Amino acid sequence: MRLLLINPNTTAAVTEACAAVARAAAAPGTEIVTATGAFGPRIINTRTENAIAAHGILSLAAEHAPGCDGILLAVSYDTALMAVREMTGLPAVGMTEAAALTAHMLGARYGLVVFGTPQLYRELIAAHGLADRFAGLRSIAMDATAALNTPDAVNDRVVEAATRLAEEDGAECVVLCGAAMAGMATRLQPRAPVPLVDGIACGVPLLEMLVRLGPPPATRGSLVRPSGRASTGLSPALAARLRGGG
Predict the structure, then answer these.
(1) In the chain, which residues fall in CATH 3.40.50.12500?
(2) Cβ contacts of residue 194 below 8 Å, gap of 6+?
(3) What is the C-alpha to C-alpha distance for residues 126 and 74, in angstroms, rounded to an integer?
(4) Is residue 236 classed exposed, middle or buried when 0-12, 13-18 and 19+ CB atoms within 10 A define those classes?
(5) Which of 21, 27, 89, 225 is deepest in the core (most CB within 10 A)?
(6) Which residues make Cβ contacts (< 8 Å) with residue 150, sequence separation at least 6?
C-alpha cells in the first residue's frame, strides 16, 4: 500500500515531522510518500492562507497521487478535503477529521488545542458533523513553528491547555491540532489528565482501513471526478485532472 501525505505549507520541517509520525503509525508494507507546498504560506493560520493552500493541495495531489492508494492531508484545517476526494477518486482523510473521529471513541466529549484562528476550527468541526460532543478549544498564542523551534516552551502551554479543557470544559479526550504538533501527543501524554490524540497517528490507520475496503470511485453525486473542464494557467497535472485525465 502506498499513501501520499500532503503538507500544503512550504515548511519542509513540518512535512518531515508528519512523515516520521506517519511511518511509525503505518502497518508493515505501507509506504509513506510526501509532498510539500511549492508556493504559498510558510504556515497556514488565516482564511486567506487556507484558500491559497487549497490550490496548492490540488496541484500536489494531481502531480503525486498517480500510483498511490490513498491521501492524508497534513493540514489542520483539512483544506480541500472534499475536492481531493472528488478529483482523485481515492480514499482521502484529513488529519483533524481523523483525530476528531477517534476522539469520539475515546471520550463522551472532546476538545481541541490549536494554533491559529479558533473560529476556523469551530467551523471545521461543524462541517464534519462532529459538533454535538465538542467541548471547546484552547488556542495557543504562538506561531506554529515554535512547536518545532522551541518545543519546551510549547510543551508547557499545550499541557496547560489540555488540562484546562479537561477540568473546565469537561473534555475527556483532547485533540492536538496542527501538522506542527505531529508527535507531540505521545511525548506529552504522561503529563496530561486525559488521552491526547494526534491527527497524523490516527489518520494513517484510518486511511489504511479505507484502502483495504476498496471503495470504487463515485459514479453518482457530488464526488464524481471532473471531466471535460477547460482551464487556464494551472499546472499541467492539475489541468489534465480537470479534463478528466491523470
Answers:
(1) 2-95+202-243, 96-198
(2) 107, 162, 165, 166, 171, 172, 173, 174
(3) 20
(4) exposed
(5) 21
(6) none
Give mean pLDDT, residues 98-113: 97
In the sheet that 110-114 helps form, which strands lie side by side, from edge to edge? 134-139, 110-114, 173-176, 196-198
Answer whether 206's CB lies under 8 Å from 43's CB.
no
pTM (predicted TM-score): 0.95
Reduced to 3 states (helix: H, G, I; strand: E, B; else coil), residue 199 is helix
Domain 96-198 sits in CATH at 3.40.50.12500
* Contact criterion met (CB below 8 Å) for 72 and 4: yes
Q: Per-residue pLDDT tens for 109-124?
A: 999 999 878 999 999 9
The cell numbers describing 181, all together, are 504538533
30, 3 Cβ separation under 8 angstroms = yes
Topology of the domain covering 2-95+202-243: Rossmann fold (3.40.50)
For residue 142, give the H/E element and its range: none
Question: In this structure, are residues 76 and 177 in contact, taking their beta carbons and an 8 Å threshold?
Answer: yes
**How far apart, in whole angstroms, are the C-alpha atoms of residue 144 and residue 7?**
14
Average pLDDT (110-139) is: 95
Could you tell me how far CA 229 lies from the centroid of its own chain? 28
**Could you give the CA distance from residue 178 to residue 185 in angstroms, rounded to a whole number?**
11
- pLDDT in the model for residue 176: 97
**Do 147 and 83 meet the contact criterion of CB atoms below 8 Å apart?**
no
How many residues appear in the chain? 246
**Amino acid at residue number 31:** E
Alpha carbon of residue 60 to chain centroid: 15
